[in-house]
From TrEMBL:
Residues 57-67 have a biased composition (Polar residues). It comes from the Eukaryota. This is 2EXR domain-containing protein. It comes from Hyaloscypha bicolor E. Transmembrane segments: none annotated. Residues 53-97 are annotated as: Disordered. Residues 10-143 form the 2EXR domain. The lineage of its organism: Eukaryota, Fungi, Dikarya, Ascomycota, Pezizomycotina. InterPro entries: 2EXR. It holds the Pfam family 2EXR. Coiled coil: none annotated.
Amino acid sequence: MADVNNFQSFPHFSQLPKEVRLMIWEMALPCPRIVSVEMRSLRKTYLEWEREKEVSNKTAENTSDSETMPEASRATSLDCERPGVDPPPIDGHLPGIKSNTPPPQILLACHESFAVATKFYERVFSIHPSSPETYFNFYQDTLYIRHDTFSWYSEGAESIIDGLVCFSVHNDKELNRVKNLAVLLDPKSIVSVEEWLVGLLCFFRGVERLSLVVQHYHQDDFASPLCLIEPIDVDAAWLNLQLFLSDPYKQEEIPEIPSNDNMGLADVDLEVLRVAIEAEMGQDYVAPKIECGVIVTRDFKEYLDSLLERCLFDSG
């Protein structure tokens, strides 16, 4: 019998025809991911940026053709300002975008794999004058935005909308290309879900599937990829399953998995909500499919699934 360890490497891969290697690299592309993005502060401050622009503008005044002036030199700090909202202090830092989701490992394997992967994964999402850092596949990845991390001017229900106003200044086309969107809702929100979603979808007119996240479980655990599961009460489900497995006198039926109504969406007809949004956005707009769920890590999902399988086995 062949040793399994002998199949962990394939030293003759480079000797394969290039066409075959490219096909293998394409087949090795990762599965759909949930890509979380959030606001961050850049090292550069507004004051430093203003000083740089003053120097650039003085240089541009000495040129006869103003069209040769770089676009960045003509920009102002108001590019990131939401109308009606005071901008951050002049000595504050510029806003930027970062992602806690690591880039696909295939991008780091070699030049050949990088060339294949970058046909599908683009480095996108930034706020001027920062550079984009997030690798995203518009065909299959899900963009994930959280109300508690994607904000700059405010907190609560309007934080995501405020952040998107700043974000969309230089990302309008990219946002409209997003097909799958997940949003962590604010349980303290006082606006209607329909009204809030209309404001949100104005930035994402190309979304085909919208996931309303009612809970982000293990918020600071980014060691494992994120997954979207049914909208259950994770803590209560975990406790019920553990109690069932530890009880020597088990009941015949497995314990109940309670639902999570953190946002009060249990009584909301999502299809009616979708039709209402479609009517509000205009006749030519096709509203996305709307679903609710909870975000957990893949490791925790596998652990929860294993508990459920053990309960099913023990219940006979």
